Amino acid sequence: MLGLPYNHTTEAPATFILVGIPGLQSSHLWLAVSLSIMYTTALLANTLIVTIIWMDSTLQEPMYCFLCVLAAVDMVMASSVVPNMVSIFSSGDNTISFNACFTQMYLVHAATAVESGLLLAMAFDRYVAICKPLHYKRILTHRVMLEMTVIITIRATVFMTPLSWMVSHLPFCGSNVVLHSYCEHIAVAKLACADPRPSSLYSLIVSSIIVGSDVAFIAASYILILQAVFSLSSKNAQLKALSTCGSHVGVMALYYLPGMASIYVAWLGEDVAPLCTQVLLADLYLIIPPSLNPIIYGLRTKQIRKRTWGLLIHYLFNHSNLGSGIQALEQTRQLQRRPS
Questions:
Q1: Closest C-alpha among 309, 18, 285 to residue 175
Q2: Beta partners for 16?
Q3: Which end of the chain has fewer CB atoms surrounding its CB within 10 Å, N or C?
Q4: Residue 1 CA to chain centroid, in angstroms?
Q5: Confidence label for 292 from pLDDT (cuts 50, 70 and 90)
Q6: Are residues 98 and 65 in contact, defined by beta-carbon separation less than 8 angstroms?
Q7: For residues 29-63, b (16+ Cβ closer than 10 Å) or e, as one string?
Q8: Which among 220, 62, 218, 56 is positioned nearest to 136, based on CA atoms?
Q9: Cβ(297)–Cβ(252) under 8 Å?
Q10: Is the pLDDT of residue 1 over 60?
Q11: pTM score > 0.70 for this model?
């Protein structure tokens, strides 16, 4: 047996207290400023990506639709933790209710699982576009794209709901101080009176299965893409394909490497890395990808970059014309008021 049976008669704490980053309390204000900047960047950039793709009828290909969903998921993932972190780091408001804690935990795990599936779907999209261009529209129809998105969401729900349920049903009869800046499941499970290893082991196994299978299929897709690219006779076509794939691989490395490092370091404990390093790594994993994804993935895409500049120029030009028109109207009114 891994531990004693759960005692469900134990009353759950009304709130948890999040300490932020243990050992780095003196840097909390600077962390609050940095997180605020990154969070604002993530919201603005991802909102811009969603708006441009949603409004432009020429950007309705599967790649852009997946990118739109990725931007939305990034905003959910960042919004589920960053405002609370900033509040902790800036004002010391570090309490979170029991239900809010486990809602946050579920949103973080579900969003990360959905994002992993979306990266796989986007890699498959690039494989079809480059390796089977004549069949692209026949293979990746809007119905197929919708089915892939639904399957990705169902997979995340099926795998991540049991984890939040397992941790929320542990008996909490001692301290309610969570040595983390958000409700990270291992940090919360350690407060339980029962053995937390079943939920922690479930998290490790499920994360390894999801990430391992997704990364394996992504790697296979890009190996086939590279083979197809280097068989092209045109150097310009090779460079264009490599540039596109390079940005995609950069986003995936940015997501998977810190994510898996965070999971395994938290599992292995302080023997591998100090607690402050574990917490900081987990925090950055949830805010850096949402901040950089729209820049690397979106604005490096030629069509989105053109639409972005076009939208900004259109807004500034119209705003300038509106200001000039208002000024001219005011001058006309002043002339009319002058006695003849």
A1: 18
A2: 96
A3: C
A4: 37
A5: confident
A6: no
A7: eebbeebbebbebbbebbebbbebbeebeebebbb
A8: 62
A9: no
A10: no
A11: yes
Residue 173: half-sphere exposure toward Cβ, Cα within 13 Å: 10
Secondary structure (H, E, C), the chain? CCCCCCCCCCCCCCEEEECCCCCCHHHHHHHHHHHHHHHHHHHHHHHHHHHHHHHCCCCCCHHHHHHHHHHHHHHHHHHCCHHHHHHHHHHCCCEEEHHHHHHHHHHHHHHHHHHHHHHHHHHHHHHHHHHCHHHHHHHCCHHHHHHHHHHHHHHHHHHHHHHHHHHHCCCCCCCCEECCCCCCHHHHHCCCCCCCHHHHHHHHHHHHHHHHHHHHHHHHHHHHHHHHHHCCCCHHHHHHHHHHHHHHHHHHHHHHHHHHHHHHHHHHCCCCCCHHHHHHHHHHHHHHHHHHHHHHHHCCCHHHHHHHHHHHHHHHHHHHHHHHHHHHHHHHHHHHHCCC
Instruction: State pLDDT tens for residues 229-254.
Output: 777 777 776 777 677 677 777 777 77
Angle at 221 between CA 217 and CA 227, to 5 degrees: 145
Q: Which long-range contacts (CB under 8 A, 24 or more apart) does 235-242 make?
A: 241/130
255, 289 Cβ separation under 8 angstroms: yes
Phi, psi of 177 (to 5 degrees): -90, 115
Dist. CA 134–CA 132, nearest whole Å:
6
Q: Residue 208 is encoded by which pair of tokens?
A: 């390894």
Q: Helices 275-293 and 82-91 meet at what angle, rounded to 10?
A: 130
Amino acid at 72: A
Nearest Cα residue to 124 out of 242, 214, 34: 214
Judging by beta carbons within 10 Å of its beta carbon (0-12, 13-18, 19+), is residue 188 exposed, middle or buried?
buried
Q: Output the CA–CA distances (angstroms, integers) from residue 83 to 93, 181, 220, 295, in the order listed.
A: 11, 11, 38, 22
